[in-house]
Design a protein that fits this description.
alpha/beta; 5-stranded mixed sheet; 4-stranded mixed sheet; binds coenzyme A
Length: about 375
């Protein structure tokens, strides 16, 4: 049987760091609240579009695997809000990499997008459709964050991570997974203002209002990730004690703790970096996986339990057997262009732009009032 080994890994974090103190300069919040409720201390703000972060992470993953871009058969970019819809983000990454033999597709299941992409690419390798694939998770939520809303603005950060998958006869890579969705709860995490539905209403693209029930998301996330983890383990007749490292979606330190307690895993076996980056949505798991390797937390042959949840409400867990190699074969010079601004300067620019959108949305609704009123009669 063919398996899909993870042979390369890479991350790209934009350099500008937004601290909790920075957020407190324009929001009614403070470091103590954010740290105690989320575990987050800082997050990154990107000066480039998401596709550029994904490209750098992907180039690093390819170098790590010792795989040439031309050898790729498939590029999958998982994210919630891509830079553009047509053409998709993956085609831009394919082009920048020079992966001219690869198919390129975007995949959106919100924060679970990277792991759903891992399932998709693994299945295509197992069935012989492709041999070598790149799967990335990237997210740049900063332009879509409602920077006036302290309930959501403190939670998110920008970043990207990627892995290379190669067909192998060895039993490694994805061993089992469980994918699911609480579609009945899709309204509890609903970013209003991005998508054709909103364009139909005439709203300027990106003028977002976050419909967000934090406590309900929290509860569903804990139940969904724990149940999926147990099912993924059970499919292989394994128990939580067999897991060497759990790498969960980094949305909130308290959610990670609650999932760990429910599963009964030793906290020393749980990888956490939410304090550094906040919730980078689809990027959290590949970035955490890369950092776990960089920190020597993954041994040859280790069993990893990856899990996530996101808008939809999608949820999943993936059981992975690591291969022999835990160090990159090579590195690359590919990097982001320099960023001449602080994260707070970047965010203040986004806030100013958003204020203009707000005016534009109001102006549109005023101008359309006769039409809307006539329609209402
Ligand atoms: C959002 C979240 C951190 C809130 O934590 P919580 O423990 O549920 O917070 P509580 O509901 O107990 O507290 C909310 C109170 O804090 C206030 N608050 C919210 N954000 C705040 C902030 N940044 N600073 C200070 N106070 C804040 C609220 O206004 C509310 O005040 P009130 O009680 O006077 O109305 C938490 O619910 C969460 O992480 N949920 C999951 C969300 C998520 O990860 N979504 C992404 C999915 S991929």
């Amino acid at each position: 049987m063919t398996h899909a080994a993870i042979t390369g890994w890479g991350k790209c974090l934009p350099p500008a760091v937004l601290t909790n103190a920075d957020l407190a300069t324009f929001l009614d919040t403070d470091d103590a609240w954010i740290v105690s409720r989320t575990g987050m201390k800082e997050r990154r703000i990107s000066h480039v579009p998401m596709g550029e972060l994904v490209h750098v992470a992907a180039a690093r993953a390819l170098a790590c695997a010792g795989v040439r871009a031309e050898a790729l058969d498939l590029v999958v970019v998982g994210s919630t809000i891509g830079d553009e819809l047509a053409p998709n983000v993956a085609s831009g990454v394919q082009h920048r990499l020079g992966a001219k033999n690869a198919a390129a597709m975007d995949l959106n299941t919100a924060c679970t997008s990277f792991l759903y992409g891992l399932s998709t690419a693994t299945a295509l390798i197992r069935t012989g459709v492709v041999k070598t694939a790149l799967v990335a998770g990237g997210e740049v939520p900063s332009p879509f964050v409602d920077w006036q809303d302290r309930n959501t603005a403190v939670l998110f950060g920008d970043g990207a991570g990627a892995v290379v998958l190669e067909a192998t006869g060895r039993e490694e890579g994805l061993l089992s997974e469980r994918l699911g969705c609480y579609g009945d709860a899709r309204g509890i995490l609903d970013i209003r203002g991005v998508g054709a539905r909103y364009a139909n209403l005439g709203l300027p693209y990106g003028f977002t209002v976050w419909n967000f029930d934090g406590q309900e998301i929290f509860k569903r996330a804990v139940v969904g990730m724990s149940a999926a983890s147990e099912e993924a383990l059970a499919k292989r007749g394994m128990a939580i004690a067999d897991v060497d490292l759990m790498i969960p979606h980094q949305a909130n330190g308290r959610i990670i703790d609650a999932v760990g307690r429910r599963l009964g895993i030793d906290p020393a076996k749980v990888f956490v970096n939410v304090h550094r980056y906040g919730n980078m949505s689809a990027a959290t798991v590949p970035v955490a996986l890369t950092e776990a390797l960089e920190e020597g937390r993954i041994r040859p042959g280790a069993h990893l339990l990856l899990s996530s949840f996101g808008a939809g409400l999608s949820w999943c867990a993936h059981l992975v057997r690591w291969g022999e190699r835990t160090a990159p074969l090579a590195s690359t010079e590919v990097d982001l262009p320099p960023c001449g601004k602080s994260a707070l300067e970047l965010v203040n620019e986004l806030r100013a732009r958003r204020a203009r959108y707000h005016e534009a949305a109001r102006a549109f609704i005023e101008a359309a009032r006769p039409l809307l009123d006539a329609g209402a009669r």
